[in-house]
Amino acid sequence: AQSVAQPEDQVNVAEGNPLTVKCTYSVSGNPYLFWYVQYPNRGLQFLLKYITGDNLVKGSYGFEAEFNKSQTSFHLKKPSALVSDSALYFCAVSPNNRLAFGKGNQVVVIP
Amino acid sequence: DGGITQSPKYLFRKEGQNVTLSCEQNLNHDAMYWYRQDPGQGLRLIYYSQIVNDFQKGDIAEGYSVSREKKESFPLTVTSAQKNPTAFYLCASSIELAGDGTGELFFGEGSRLTVL
Cα(A90)–Cα(A25) distance, rounded to whole angstroms? Predict the structure, then answer.
């Protein structure tokens, strides 16, 4: 069965500092990996995905993620966090059309 | 603009009542999904549909029902059999012509159901 682990409940970072949100996955076959962001009482918005090719994937709003097959990880990163990046971030995996989501990480960017 | 519309945004229900949540999309997507979100538990798949007149159970389908009579519409009924229906419900769609899971999901704004 496919699964995703987001080990930290909350990530606090000062504005301007690098932001990292961690994700590890477990799946049989080739993993298709996604990051989504959710603002309060809203739906999820797609940030980026890894399907194949370059391990470093660039996405929306300056975010990027690095696929590491040996560590089964797909950490989300942003070089310089903004207060507006404060939100709930979800990692998801899919080798088919049934996405499995992690529990989410609350990111708090401190001014 | 293209997108997914969920209604109502907030809904209150008495125990023992069925309630239907609406989901409409004008993105011309083949696949549609219903997820349930509870605090600290992420999103759990209730039902999904890859094509009109066909749908599949997800991980937590008990107490829920769906229909897919039109490509644009995928309503979810929360029945009285659902033991703990208070949650945030999210509808999504994706192109998924190949059904291989590579397409990203587009989400609606959600419907918050509270059982009194």
Answer: 12
Segment B68-90 mean pLDDT: 95
Surface of A (37-96) touching B: CB under 8 A = 41-46, 49, 51, 90, 94-96
Strand partners, A13: A109
Three state DSSP letters for A16-48: CCCEEECCEEECCCCCCEEEEEECCCCCEEEEE
Place of tokens 């997108």: B3
Which band of pLDDT confidence, cut at 50, 70 and 90, is reported for residue A8?
confident
| pLDDT tens-digit map of B65-78 | 999 999 999 999 99
For B2-116, list the strands marked E by DSSP: 4-7, 10-13, 19-25, 31-37, 43-51, 54-57, 64-66, 76-78, 87-94, 106-107, 111-115
Q: Which of A3, A28, A99 to mutate against chain B (most B CBs within 10 Å)? A: A99
Q: In chain B, what residues touch A9 (CB-CB under 8 Å)?
A: 40
* Each residue's pLDDT tens digit, A70-81: 999 999 999 999
What residue type is assigned to position A84 of the chain?
A: S
